[in-house]
Amino acid sequence: MAAARTKRTAPVWDGDRARTILETLNIVVLTCDDGLEITGLNPAAEMHFGVSAKQVIGKPIASLLLDGADKLVTPLYKALISGRPVNAHDLCLRIGPQKATTMDLTITPIPLPTGKDRLIVELMQVDRLMRLAREEERIDRHAANRELLRGLAHEIKNPLGGLRGAAQLLDRELPDRAHREYTRVIIHEADRLRNLVDRMMGSYRPVKTERINIHAVLEHVRKLLLVEVQEGISFLVDYDPSLPDLRGDNEQLIQAVLNIVRNSVEAMQRRGEIKLRTRIERSVYIGQTWRRQVIRADIEDSGPGIPEHMQERIFYPMVTGRPDGSGLGLSIAQDIIVKHGGLIKLNSRPGSTVFSIFLPLDEESKKYGK
After folding, report:
1. Which CATH number fits domain 18-130: 1.10.287.110, 3.30.450.20, 1.10.10.10, 3.40.50.720?
2. What is the pLDDT of residues 45-61, one digit of tens each?
3. How far apart are CA 299 and CA 333, in angstroms?
4. Which helix (H) or strand (E) holds 48?
5. Residues 263-275, buried b or exposed e (16+ Cβ, 10 A)?
6. pTM (two decimals)
């Protein structure tokens, strides 16, 4: 007699587990009924469209868009009629006057026991993926540059030390005081080159973590610059008082912010307005690392802006748009923020240049630099 076969059943997911998975997805996910009215959306969708679930549930899905709704509605109807998944690529959807995004669309019909179909709508932001790829490339390139600079610094400082030592010995042996001036020039220039190499390397100290408040860092820099530049520069602050503390190196973060603010002051030729703004950003990728939440600190100036051809290179050592600039301040700032597991983003146009510092709040912050 044949043994009875055990019937295999699909795993059952309870509602709470499914909801948790949906809420942690970074993909925009919505559900709608056969009348194309919204029945649900995840936090990523709320963030992307700038709405809350309570505001839009029961409303037509087309109401989320400022224009181009037909690009979304047409494939939705196609999925309903065919009962099959529908994909669409590179849809340009305008959410608001200032926000147009390019997205890939996947629509999956879900037949319910009642016979009334619902649709799962997944939207993947293509330009966001491109931005993430650029940021990851920038982090990798930054790490490669640091390694190159470390090797270069070693090769430069070794012979410099030999030159300086030989000049000191020669200085002691020369009887003629006039000739000693030449050896002292050699010593002075060797020291200057060594200091330049050290500045190019940025902060070589490891991050000394302690609990700090980002507003204390920003206020320290603001007060310092008000003393340095007593006229012509005005500061506006827009702080989120609910921000929690983060873990980091207080001195290094002050140095990073100071370098950025000084760069803004010089770009405005010491006349203009600087805004300091803080916010919480949720579900953020830094390179390929997902962060549940990060602190965002914006430093915005009213200067002429950074030329587009320089924006991708502005964090490289020795790159500057000013004749008297060293090109090291922003490179050092980027190095410090990366060592904190964060990132600096730039958005610049005439009249508004914004450097946005992203610093993770979770304890397991990955240190990209050592």
Report:
1. 3.30.450.20
2. 888 787 888 888 889 88
3. 13
4. helix 43-49
5. bbbbbbeeebebb
6. 0.57
